[in-house]
Amino acid sequence: MNTANSHIDPRTLLLESFRAAVAAADPLEIVAAHLPPPHAGGRTLVVGAGKAAASMARAVERAYAGRATLDGIVVTRYAHGLPTDHIRVIEAGHPVPDEAGEQAAADILTRVQALGPEDRLIVLVSGGGSSLLSLPAEGIAMADLKATTRELLRCGAPITEMNVVRKHLSRIQGGRLAQASKAPVTTLIVSDVAGDDPSAIASGPTVPDASTYADALAILQRYGAKVPAPVQSHLERGARGEIDETPKPGDPLFTRVQNHMIATAHGSLEAAAALFRKQGVQPVVLGDTVTGEAQEVARVYAALVREIRAYNAPFAAPVALISGGECTVTLPASGAERARGGRCSEFLLSLAIELGGADNIHAIAADTDGIDGSEDNAGALCCPDSLQRAEAAGVSARQQLDAHDAWGFFDAIGDLVQTGPTRTNVNDYRAILIL
């Protein structure tokens, strides 16, 4: 380690940087500043969906305490709930939707349709809302929607393209929730998608949708996704103009809708960068829109790390390479049930293999919602001796990666990062610390 930075404990610094990134998107700290003044007229209905829904709802109640009469419904992932006084919190399935989410979405739509022009609708949107706020279109069963979601996940379709399909299978997403409201709408959005496109977050229930049924069909074809017959038929009928499209940009209904982005991946990366800077480590933000296969992204990052170590270019150590976004993991058609972990741990295991135990290089990759893929960890840490410790434990890094069982690798060496649900979500966080 560089003697000028011998005071740095890499593991502690990386964990603190992740905590700083998550804290920058904590709804309990940021929601109040973006709310409209308390409504003096009719009812104020609060609805929402996403991994941050419960904490956003609690933040609304705190901000309006004693100043407004509230009620409403939000739906969040199982184990992500919080106690609230006026806004009902329902837990449901993610990433595959379930009947609890379907019923919650139906209740939300009914409540919104009952509002009048004198009322106000506040919508709380965060990542995960696409599956949690699932209300299938007429003629599509929840089983069909579940099967479609599983197939798109298996094919490795990016979340933005998955959401194009889901919008066109929904009675509530793709701007249809705003369409159902006669009341003015204020939506607060915590972004979990690359580029912070509001129409892609929770499939944009109050945002104009520029995509079409034809786009959804093209996505299924591109990934070779085999979906249930009712889903295929519905999309084909929509493409022929037999079913109404989602409301598009320019539709007059959106004149009564305000959508506010209140937390983003970039803001969280900047918070982490500030922490590194205070510790005398140069932070380099490589972007908040990094996508692609987790293993391939790791290989590119490893090449950059080797360049820095060999030539002190394009950056000189000590440096922290920070990035956000959402990688993908494409699972095989057979054996997928044996995979354990998620895109963060898979990225990190691939990185460890590529770096081969190089000295003074440490890394973290973790999902800001606290859950990376199939298990209960947020992500993992990678150290120079990770491969050596795994070998001593009888664990093959290459075999674990080939089996898409990065969780098993990091669990064996005690380097999982476990936070529990953070009740926010601004996508993945990655930091490579070169000392």
TrEMBL record:
Domain (MOFRL) ranges: 319-428
Organism superkingdom: Bacteria
TM regions (residue ranges): none
InterPro entries: GK-like_C_sf, GK_N_sf, MOFRL, MOFRL_assoc_dom, MOFRL_protein
Residues in MOFRL-associated domain copies: 14-236
Keywords carried by this UniProt record: Kinase, Transferase
GO molecular function: kinase activity
Pfam families the record matches: DUF4147, MOFRL
Protein name (Swiss-Prot/TrEMBL): Glycerate kinase
Species of provenance: Cupriavidus campinensis
